[in-house]
């Protein structure tokens, strides 16, 4: 009973499935006069070895995992105890297992299923060097410990299922269901964090708005399924060129947003617009060349045709708002809203002008940022 109590006390604490089954193996080895023990977990499809004691039984346990056969599999499949006291004489039952066990000097084995909620969760294997059957008392004692452990195995499984459901719910709340990208809610959270860290570090940052050109035509011509597939492929391509540490999000519809952090300060005119201040008071803004490189990569990755399965080509209008957020004279929300508004305006300016000249969108955007900075000077 002391062993059962100890196993229960360990299980009540902060345990994992692996640590619990390891404790089961140790407890059985302490209670019974055996030469080895192995414990395996069955996830509903596959059996995997969790712990062996001592190392000499490892080969016999691993070959069961590899072959999908052996005493532990029979115990799980029949949901009953399986034993063999004369492995040398009855090696035909499990040829590869018997070969490994006998090579380790093990001549007797017993497998006990872990049963709960109408299914087998795994099995405990007992090994002995001396041939001969395990006694009823030994099997009963081992089964009691196995049953106690199985109750906590079920608890561990329930906890894992609940934690996974919680993770999935959190992911669903913050990510776009179609593309898997961060959604608008997570974008705002990342933006607030970026504004705070950028202003403290006196670094520059940028918000890039991307609106697909020709998306409506794809939807109208090829259907909404094709449109959805196009959005997934666009998200995948854009993800390949976004810098490590930056955020790519789906704003909604056919619009995407990139948050670029830790940019090198450059020309001051971008800073005033992004923070809602005059360029004269502000620190330097984002390096224009770095932004051009980023924007060119975004354009370039969308240039190749898309297979939906119909082959289509689309373009993109891109708007950028960049600068150094305020160091305290305005709220973080003011900076976030200013960056989003300026990037959105710049994107629509680029879209309006794309048929009028061959200027790239970031040059149009810089003109817009300078104009906004002039307005805020009052």
Automatic annotation (TrEMBL):
It comes from the Bacteria. SMART domains: GAF (SM00065), GGDEF (SM00267). CDD domains: GGDEF (cd01949). InterPro entries: DGC-Regulatory_Protein (IPR052163), GAF (IPR003018), GAF-like_dom_sf (IPR029016), GGDEF_dom (IPR000160), Nucleotide_cyclase (IPR029787), Rev_trsase/Diguanyl_cyclase (IPR043128). PANTHER family: DIGUANYLATE CYCLASE DGCT-RELATED, GGDEF DOMAIN-CONTAINING PROTEIN. This is Diguanylate cyclase (GGDEF)-like protein. Residues 203-363 form the GGDEF domain. Pfam families: GAF, GGDEF.
